[in-house]
């Protein structure tokens, strides 16, 4: 398969416009996006239980998908202003997921040092709480933007 | 002397990874015959899913190895009594057998399938009168056996009681489910 034939996509099918695909109210849409992103957020943090392996896979997966989407839409569209308003709100939630990944990696590092390397590291409660709250606030704000601003 | 049994866990994990990858690939083909031809974005997502599936056994292995080791440390259980790697690999055997069977059946189904456009995958007959839904139940049973082997082997090899073994094996899974299903 040639590189060009691989990139034959229907732009509409890639649209991240929830309101067009369903007749959900903005509040329901907000709840749906928040629920979905919260699952990803907690899954990314709980990656510490697999020594960071799940956190790595989840971060790469999200990065690959968003990267591929932006590249494909950029090639197909004449003007990037056509698709950027739909994509950009997602860049905010990516920051939230990066915070979750950072938390996952911090906990992995702590557990490895504590239980496998037997060095007694100090657990930074303040940093962990700050990362967790900031990350979740970002997820909350991005869900709000996606449903109340971007989708209308 | 070359000790083959040392490579047993690696063999089980690799075999399982290959099986999971192939099953995911065949499931993608099946999905395409149900929902219609994929666009390039869907092809990309399904290809990513295939690689993620291949990593699933390693993920599960790491999860059980890490969490069990940590709980052992907390309960001050001597973890050198037996090889935890070997115990987890043994527990994977029923899942491996099921995955081989599933791969054969799904491969056969994909090769010989008629028109299944827009049909519900769970109600399709994969073998004789058995549907995909039935196979899912058998799969769940195999994961149940996976836990059972872990609980029994850890109890016997580390000489602890069943309650402790149950707590060691089920607490991490419960925490994980709680974290993900919290919303």
- Outline the biggest β-sheet of chain B: 2 strands, antiparallel
Number of helices, counting only DSSP H or I runs of 4 residues or more of chain A:
6
Overall pLDDT level of chain A = 80
Structural class of chain B: mainly alpha
Average per-residue pLDDT of chain B, rounded, comes to 89
| Fraction of helical residues of chain B | over 70%
**Oligomeric state of the chains present here:** heterodimer
Structural class of chain A: mainly alpha
Helix proportion of chain A: over 70%
Strand content of chain B: under 5%
Low-confidence runs of chain A: 1-21
Amount of beta strand of chain A: under 5%
Q: What does the overall shape of chain A look like?
A: elongated
Helices and strands of chain B, in N-to-C order?
HHHEEHH
Describe the structure.
The complex is a heterodimer of chains A (152) and B (183). Chain A has helices at 3-6, 18-21, 26-45, 53-76, 84-116, 125-150. Chain A contains six helices and no strands. The termini of chain A are far apart. Helix content of chain B is 75%, strand content 3%. Chain B has a two-stranded antiparallel sheet with strand order 1-2. The interface between A and B is medium-sized, with 30 and 25 residues.
Keywords:
heterodimer, A: 152 residues, mainly alpha, 6 helices, 73% helix, B: 183 residues, two-stranded antiparallel sheet
């Amino acid at each position: 398969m040639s590189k060009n034939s691989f990139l034959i996509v229907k732009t509409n099918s890639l649209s991240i416009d929830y309101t067009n695909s369903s007749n959900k109210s903005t509040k329901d849409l907000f709840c749906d996006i928040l629920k979905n992103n919260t699952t990803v957020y907690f899954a990314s943090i709980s990656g510490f239980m697999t020594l960071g392996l799940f956190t790595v896979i989840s971060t790469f997966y999200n990065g690959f998908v968003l990267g591929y989407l932006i590249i494909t839409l950029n090639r197909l569209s004449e003007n990037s202003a056509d698709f950027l308003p739909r994509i950009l709100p997602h860049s905010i939630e990516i920051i939230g997921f990066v915070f979750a990944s950072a938390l996952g990696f911090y906990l992995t590092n702590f557990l490895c040092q504590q239980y496998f390397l037997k060095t007694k590291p100090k657990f930074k409660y303040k940093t962990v709480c700050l990362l967790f709250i900031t990350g979740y606030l970002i997820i909350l704000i991005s869900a709000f933007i996606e449903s109340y601003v971007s989708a209308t | 002397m070359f000790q083959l049994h040392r490579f047993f866990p690696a063999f089980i994990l690799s075999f399982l990874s290959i099986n999971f990858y192939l099953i995911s690939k065949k499931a993608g083909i099946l999905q395409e015959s149900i929902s219609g031809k994929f666009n390039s974005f869907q092809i990309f997502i399904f290809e990513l899913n295939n690689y993620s599936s291949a990593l699933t056994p390693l993920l599960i292995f790491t999860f059980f190895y890490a969490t069990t080791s940590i709980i052992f440390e907390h309960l001050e259980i001597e973890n050198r009594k037996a090889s935890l790697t070997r115990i987890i690999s043994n527990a994977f055997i029923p899942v491996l057998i099921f995955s081989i069977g599933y791969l054969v059946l799904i491969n056969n189904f994909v090769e010989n399938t008629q028109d299944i456009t827009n049909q519900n995958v769970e109600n399709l007959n994969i073998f004789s009168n058995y549907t995909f839904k039935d196979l899912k139940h058998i799969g769940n049973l195999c994961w149940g056996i996976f836990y059972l082997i872990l609980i029994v082997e850890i109890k016997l090899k580390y000489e602890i009681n069943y309650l402790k073994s149950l707590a060691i094996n089920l607490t991490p899974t419960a925490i994980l489910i709680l974290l993900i299903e919290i919303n």
